[in-house]
Amino acid sequence: MLDREAQIEYLLDRYERPHHKRALPDADVSIEGGNPGCGDIVHLHLQFDGDRLVDVSFEGEGCTISQASADILLDEVQGMTIEQLEGFTHEQLMEILGKEIVQNRTRCAMLSLDTLKQALRRRYEERVRRSLDASAAD
Question: How do the pLDDT tens digits run along the chain, 138 residues long?
Fold first, then answer.
């Protein structure tokens, strides 16, 4: 576990030099989430191979915490299955980000995870709709 100063440096570094900030033209799901009150926006792009998340990226703007959180979250979840993604909790992300540092900015810190969960719901709904459409066509 990093000390407070090291954790702040880590968040700043990920804000300034993100690993996953880019477009992903072949994404299976792209979704935007935001915090209207503070102007944070995160647009997630997810690409799956079956039920495994094989590529992830984000685009967005906002505060250091919202943008660094998105980048750090994507490091954590890339390669996970749908079941693992659904089980990933706010508490886990808070621990990774440094609970003491982000606890007063939880909406900013959780924007990326909330958007990811919304993307999973959208993917599920689209798959159900396609299945129903295919059944109706038979």
Answer: 678 899 999 999 999 999 999 999 999 999 999 988 889 999 999 999 999 999 999 999 999 999 999 999 999 999 999 999 999 999 999 999 999 999 899 999 999 999 999 999 999 998 888 888 888 877
Domain 4-126: which CATH number of 2.60.120.200, 3.90.1010.10, 3.10.20.90, 1.10.1750.10: 3.90.1010.10
pTM assigned to the model: 0.91
Q: Side chain identity at 77, as an amino acid letter?
A: V
CA 98, CA 88: separation in Å to the nearest integer?
16
**In the chain, where are the structural domains located?**
4-126
The end-to-end CA distance of the chain, in Å, is 56
CA-based nearest residue to 84, from 108, 61, 107, 117: 117
Alpha-carbon gap, residue 127 to 121, rounded angstroms: 10
